[in-house]
Amino acid sequence: MFTSIDTKMIEVAKKISVPLARLSLFLVYFWFGALKIFSTSPANPLVDALLQKTLPFLTFSQFIVCFAIFEMVIGLLFLIPKAQKIAVPLFFLHMITTALPLFVLGDQIWQSFLTPTLEGQYIIKNLVLIALVVSLISQTKPKIQGAK
After folding, report:
1. What mean pLDDT comes out for the span 134-146?
2. Fewest CB within 10 angstroms: 50, 84, 104, 109, which?
3. Whole domain around residue 42: which residue ranges?
4. 91 lies in a domain?
């Protein structure tokens, strides 16, 4: 009995894992991007602080709209299987930029040694997104040389 339940769960997981991963990435990226556009994102102050340290010649109002659209585009690209090859490099570029506060804004990210603030936890949870994208990549069939 347990074997058949286990087998069925694995079959269902194999069927839904890639679409669920794509939908999840879309929701997180599109939703969080939209929050930035409407100035309701709790991450906006952190983005502003990072902007002041790294690109002080840009205004926050200009940057946040571009950054939000960038996030929303990443989300949309993950919904389209053939666009994954575009989404993945953009995703990793985004991960690099969102990890910068861990090193540049230490006082806002760490309460004490190895104890992140809420903002720090928000950034560290990106490890889960990285694992999800790596898993998604592992399910992708490589393009065969010479095939059209």
Report:
1. 85
2. 104
3. 18-138
4. yes
| Sign of the dihedral defined by the CA atoms of residues 64, 92, 80, 11, in that order | negative
Q: How large is the average pLDDT for residues 133-148?
A: 82
Could you give the C-alpha distances from 134 to 26, 129, 130, in angstroms and in order? 15, 9, 6
Sign of the alpha-carbon torsion through 83, 89, 92, 94: negative
Residue 73 burial by Cβ neighbours in a 10 Å radius (0-12, 13-18, 19+): middle
The answer as to whether 71 is a domain residue is yes
Helix (H) or strand (E) holding 147: none
Q: What is the pLDDT of residue 143?
A: 76
Nearest to 30 by CA among 70, 90, 65, 60: 70
